[in-house]
Specification:
The chain is mainly alpha-helical and about 260 residues long. The chain contains twelve helices and no strands. The chain is elongated and about 90 Å long.
């Protein structure tokens, strides 16, 4: 019985609170909504805070409260896990209010939100690129910033781009489109010359040239086997003790014989 009474009391409090909030939403008092929004934010009720701040966003545009409204609107969206929306508000703040005391944090958080929505390497990496560019811009503008994680986050995002480039290039190799794979693999090497996949990429180029020659029409075989021999020299000079050395040597011997 006591538990039932407590539940009824809690429900009544919730209903009163809800009714009070609905009245607040309908209120024309922008300053009251602004104050209450910051109170809700302080209580980590980010949903109500953002709803109220959106209501007064246009009212305070151009006022001395404008940057505060946008800043806490960004933070409220961030608190709810709406990182793309948060990024847009942070971006609006530092671009529209460059002299705001919130500008530095907003520029960093814009880049960080883009980092948070950066997907796994197999997917489109547009947000990764945007995040890297945003972090680089931030570091250039605020070299002594208290937000010191930018460099390591850029490195992490760069690794994703390297992975994406490698797997995209390797796809042509895996499906046997050797002419296309040579182009894609070499593009990946050119774009990321210090990639951790360099040895694999160079071997895949070598093997692609060899398999392209094997599957060519007779008139093109000799020229393409010669290209495989040339590719072997490039590969073995850079990786003389490669894990692929036995396979590379086999390709070289067969290709060399086929050029005679």
């Amino acid at each position: 019985m006591r538990f039932k009474t407590i539940s009824v009391v809690v429900l009544l409090i919730a209903l009163v609170s809800c009714n009070g909030y609905q009245k607040l939403l309908k209120s024309a008092d922008a300053n009251l909504k602004y104050r209450k929004a910051l109170e809700y934010f302080g209580k980590e009720d980010y949903s109500r805070a953002s709803e109220l701040l959106e209501d007064v966003l246009n009212v305070f545009r151009g006022s001395n409260k404008a940057d505060t409204v946008v800043f806490y609107l960004a933070k409220s969206n961030y608190g709810q896990g709406f990182y793309e929306a948060a990024s847009e508000y942070y971006s609006t703040l530092f671009q529209s209010y460059p002299y705001s005391p919130f500008s530095e944090e907003s520029e960093y958080m814009n880049a960080y939100c883009l980092y948070l929505v950066s997907p796994r390497p197999s997917l489109d990496q547009s947000n990764s690129v945007k995040s890297i560019e945003s972090f680089q811009s931030f570091m250039k503008k605020y070299p002594a910033s208290r937000f010191s994680k930018s460099k390591e986050l850029i490195d992490e995002l760069q690794d994703k781009l390297v992975d994406k480039s490698f797997y995209s290039a390797k796809l042509y190799y895996d499906i046997g489109m050797y002419k296309s794979s040579i182009v894609a693999l070499k593009n990946s090497l050119e774009e990321y010359p210090n990639t951790k996949y360099r040895e694999k990429l160079m071997f895949f180029v070598l093997n692609s040239r060899y398999l392209l020659a094997v599957n060519s029409i007779e008139i093109k075989k000799k020229e393409r086997f010669q290209e495989a021999v040339d590719e072997y020299y490039s590969f073995i000079s850079e990786f003389p003790k490669s894990e692929y050395k036995a396979d590379a040597d086999f390709i070289y011997q067969n290709s060399q014989e086929s050029t005679k």
